[in-house]
Write a structure and sequence with these properties.
The structure is a homodimer. The longest helix of chain A is centred in the middle third of the chain and has 29 residues. In chain A, helix 4 runs parallel beside helix 6. The first copy, chain A, is built from 14 helices and nine strands. By secondary structure, the first copy, chain A, is α/β, with parallel strands linked by helices. In chain A, the strands form two sheets. The first copy, chain A, has a six-stranded parallel beta sheet with strand order 3-2-1-4-5-6, sandwiched between helices. Chain A is elongated. Chains A and B meet through strand 9, helix 9, helix 10, helix 11 and helix 12 of A and strand 9, helix 9, helix 10, helix 11 and helix 12 of B.
Chain lengths: ~300, ~300
């Protein structure tokens, strides 16, 4: 079966790599940091000691990295994929990064005859483990079609949205809506609590109406039960909204609500709580209002 | 069958009254303004020329009015229900008003031995016509139980959330979440459009993930199709968020996002578009960013 290179073995990358191994792919893995690859090797992966070891043998290379600087370095940096990848290779960057950087990476790779997809995901660690990620893709149609068997293994939905950058722009759209909605719920339930209402009774009364959402159903019970275990960490959400603001600056798009919510995320991170789930946005409101949203 | 007084025959009140008539209630109706009651009289209602004509014969009186001042005037004003209603009567105010006023009305009525429920609804004109409103109730348990047959006729869900005011507080919680979410979607899809993406493709890619909501599913198609027919009018939404801010001031609750979204609603209303659906929040963003969210 096809040889695939996989770079980035963190919380998301490792379970994704495992799913590719289970599907029968020949995987050659590389970690920038010292994340142990033993579990993957046991399951049949080969460990590479450099990016070049991967590009030598793999026509398709997946990257799953924390943010734009890492994607830039690994794909188009001094020792990056671009230096040694064969013409006609396909690079799929599944990291959530600044879409402007995705466009830049795509252009640089294209100049060497290497195809590129930006394909960030939504669904978190759970989605990565279950192979139920939502994959948002930017790039050429032919490249997208080449990647479909891989996307089918990793996700439950995959959409080609436009040229390079479109995948990461769609991810930013997603993150704007999700994060502002968590803040909206926090603001609303602080008012409910200050008014002496039971959060759970209010939740029951509104959840099937227009206020209903995935965020309400997943985050409100966490808030009421004071369970802020991630899930999706404040610091990663902060990175995403920082990328939103960077993209907004590049495109001259005013983002009044996003900018405020980013400041809230910074405040939580600054208090040393960047590792909590993003439902802990409510903690900012609780500090501000001196009240706790619980029964 | 039970005689019920019904005061307020507007967009919401009229179809609600029709549903009560259909269910067999004896209805005596009164309109503060010159809204014609012919349709209701044809269906069997009796028209009263004053509030006192209603209180004389009805043990239960429903009010469905635009905002706090009208509820105050009709229920506890100089010629209001309180002046002539019998001891043991039940007043159900289904208007969406400032919960602080609901508490005040409840106290005044209680001092005369009249029971009171604040029972605002969510679901709009369509929900009123279909009898599928979500009813959020504040008041005494005994009063709530007395009103259940009426709530069953008018709505598909009804919850007693707490003492007087709790119904309208829950409604404000609902409106905070709904309105901020519309603004979030507007902000997000402006960015998508500025990035050259198809709004519909992005919608398809994100709707089943964490960004998914009733608001996204109902408002995004309206935005893309440039259909801003209400639905729920900007001016009514503005009134609700003004009530949120008033309640927030009374309870000392900081509401940073709600306050910004209220300013957006004011701007749209000020441009003469207060009669459009609240999905037209996107128009504010479009003006600001000089781009239209359509395919």
């Amino acid at each position: 079966m096809q040889k695939i290179g996989f770079i980035g073995l963190g919380i998301m990358g490792k379970p994704m790599a495992i799913n590719l191994l289970k599907a029968g792919y020949n995987l050659i893995v590389f970690s920038r940091t010292s994340i142990p690859a033993e579990e993957l090797i046991e399951k049949g992966a080969t460990k590479a000691l450099s990016v070049a070891e991967i590009t030598k043998v793999c026509g398709t290379i997946i990257t799953m990295l924390p943010d734009s600087p890492q994607s830039e370095e690994i794909i188009i940096g001094e020792n990056g994929i671009i230096q040694t990848a064969k013409k006609g290779a396909l690079v799929i960057d599944m990291s959530s990064i600044n879409p402007i950087i995705s466009i830049k990476i795509g252009e640089k790779l294209a100049s060497k005859g290497i195809d590129f997809l930006d394909a960030p995901v939504s669904g978190g660690e759970q989605g990565a483990i279950e192979g139920s990620l939502a994959i948002m893709v930017g790039g050429r149609k032919e490249a997208f079609e080449r990647a479909i068997p891989i996307f089918k293994t990793l996700g439950s939905s995959y959409f080609l949205i436009g040229e390079n950058g479109a995948g990461n722009f769609a991810k930013l759209v997603n993150q704007i809506i999700v994060t502002i909605n968590i803040a909206a719920i926090s603001e609303a339930f602080i008012l409910a609590k200050k008014a002496g209402l039971s959060p759970t009774l209010v939740y029951n009364a509104i959840k099937n109406g227009y206020a209903g959402s995935k965020v309400l159903d997943s985050k409100l019970p966490m808030i009421v039960n004071r369970d802020f275990k991630p899930g999706f960490k404040i610091d990663l959400n902060k990175k995403d909204l920082q990328n939103v603001m960077n993209a907004g600056s590049a495109l001259n798009v005013p983002l009044p609500l996003t900018s405020i919510v980013l400041e809230i995320l910074k405040s939580i991170s600054c208090a040393g709580n960047g590792n909590l789930d993003n439902s802990s946005i409510v903690n900012f409101y609780e500090d501000m209002s001196k009240i706790i949203v619980k029964e």
